[in-house]
Fold this protein.
Amino acid sequence: MSTSDSGSSSRRFTLLLVHAHPDDECSGTGGLIIRCAEADHTTVLITCTNGDRGQVNGLSLRPEDSAGDRRRLAEVRQGELERASKILGLSRHYQLGYPDSGMAGWKSNKGPEVFANADLDEAAEKIARIIRECRPDVLVTYNEGGGYGHPDHIMTHRAAMAAAEAAADPSRLVGLPPWRVKKIYHTAWARSRMLRSWRWMRRLGKKTPLDDPNFDETKFGTPDEEITTRIDVRSVRRKKWRALFTHESQLGNNFFWWFFRLAGRWLFPDESFVLVRSEVSCPGRENCIFEGL
Ligand SMILES: [Zn+2]
């Protein structure tokens, strides 16, 4: 982030992002990571799962049926994530390696080995140890609903929030000294922007949630008035899309992503967040995630 919009002189901070799957780091926070990296802040990513049940595009894998295909997909996604991390300019990257739970409602959600059913304390402790090691000023993860209801995103939220508590508690986790994260954010897709993009897609003849006769806009995205922080990502959008499109196994020739690549500058000029916990006083609205530090 530039000095001019940070309000925080030229100090360097550490940002930690806790995401569920390879590719999540790019779609909602890729621009933020690039801007922080370009301003010489330290950026750390934790990816909780290996993504081995992702919906595959352009590869002849059926991870829902075959353990071998799941292993292969996990390897493919690992490579994609490594390439994306380099483009984003991440300082450090940790993978917890939990098996993917699959989309909400899939039979795999019930598997005892998947991340959604992992031991919460154990997962939180893994993240808390990284927090103590990296000492982030700011933590970014999902909201209680995991953003859009994916069981791994919900578990990521629970584990990351519990980890922030554990890392700060001197009676927990012997070894590294306690560390209190100063600001915690949840990622947010502004409802107005989602609606606007669906209207555009509908004009182009594509199916969107707007086609559902029972469509209820309150079930989608975050109400704009709840958003506290908007990071302008227009200047880094090309790099963001380059990073996102390294996740080829997930995107393929999906019209949705190509549409956003072309129209993102107008439809999603910023990435938005909700500040949910802060040790420092902050204005009601900010355009820098390190505001007040
Ligand atoms: Zn995900």
